[in-house]
């Protein structure tokens, strides 16, 4: 398996480089890490989209596309993500790997230079972002925020997070909210951009056939204009809370034909904990796979849900359940989901179920190196959390998870909040 090298380029600026000859393309990315908060989330989310509109040398998107075409049709796109309570904003690019160029030319250095240009040399008018670019991208951001309500399954999960984690950074959406987004100006966005450059830690990523030292040199040169007069901040520890004695229940009515029952649990465990591999297996056993209790019993056998699954928020000590139900079957579905969890807590599952869950988790981890997108996503999360464990090592830990460890892990899982999206007549 390809190993990841971690190299510090500047104070608070790190490169994770995966050297591999497995792919015909190479991936190059740069991400600013920001504490997730309601005031700055929309501003941070807007910055990479505005940066992508033009640079001092390539003043509009047409010129940027021409530059990318010269790099064998490469791409660099804005990316906004969250990892736990950290907002990750920047760019992710894909280019032809140097090993496959027709004339032996190199792509790494010019691609790194163009990435640095996007990050550090934006097109400006009167000393700040172009107002037309800001206006256009601000409107796009507002529309993206508004459009989130269209997918009711995702909307219900978002609302669960907002209700369950009200007052916690995790309750803030990666794009922020419409009010803050609509109020952004070219001047305010420029100030936020300058703050990012001075104080935000930066994670760089490369996956391809070039040696890590060569990539590091190219990126160090491309980012030599980064400000050095500020102290890059440390990322805060994720907020941890205990579940209330009486779980909260939140109900919302909309014009929908299918109810969305979502449930949030506090686990007391994230990926930095020793018991996290056991929790991964426990989640797979309960609702994380097509051989899980929720899928086979609640959905298939009892037909209480159109879909039912659980997922871990591995950078935050939460497990979330998502299901689609008939309005009048809400109580039956809720009770059966909790009953299945209680059975798993008691160890009331077969050795075959345990082995199936374990194999599913191990298979998922071992397949990560087969996808450049999953590799990048995995190593970004590891960098944000400060965990250097590779997928293969984590898979070996999962293989050693016992029945007793699964029961222990589930013993710390407690229901916090239920959110139900029902129809207006339901």
UniProtKB/TrEMBL annotation:
Cleavable signal peptide: none
Residues covered by the Peptidase M16 C-terminal domain: 184-360
GO molecular function: metal ion binding
Domain of life: Bacteria
Pfam families assigned to the protein according to its UniProt record, in alphabetical order: Peptidase_M16_C
InterPro entries xrefs: Metalloenz_LuxS/M16 (IPR011249), MPP/UQCRC_Complex (IPR050361), Peptidase_M16_C (IPR007863)
Annotated segments matching region Disordered: 227-248
Protein name: Insulinase family protein
